Amino acid sequence: MASTTSAREPLPKPSLDKPTHLLAFGFGAGCSPKAPGTMGTLLAVALYLPLSQLSPAGYALALVIIVVAGVWLCDRASQDLGVHDHPGIVWDEIAGYLLTMVAAPPGWLWIAVGFGLFRLFDIWKPWPIGWLDRRVRGGLGIMLDDLVAGVFAAACLQLLALWLS
User: Fold this and answer.
1) Burial 77-98, CB ≥16 within 10 A → b, else e
2) What average pLDDT is seen over the chain?
3) Cut 0.90: pTM above it
């Protein structure tokens, strides 16, 4: 789906009274005029704190629900707004960060390191992240590059934790 806005037109604003927009835009975090992806990832940190108290199976189940729901939410919001991967859609950042933190060591240091690593891979988009971002469309495309960034960040986080132990 191609964007229906030109580079000069302002991006359409979400209707946060619509549940799909409210969720896809991270309860408004994605409406930040500066760094909406970073704001969405900060929201993910807040969501991670209670989720980290779950058993590993519970965390995995919550993550699967977030990812599956995210494909639909991101697709729906993208279609409503007529913009593929609107920068304010941050559900993908939430899912990507939560994936980064699977089996992460406990503590604020690791939460911050996970945050930094995820943002690094999400912004930098090394292969295949950038390739996926450019080629896979729809809700799956919006989610997939952030999930792969989360896998890269998780691998680095685990290697760093192993190296430091």
Assistant:
1) bbebbebbbbebbbbbbbbbbb
2) 94
3) yes
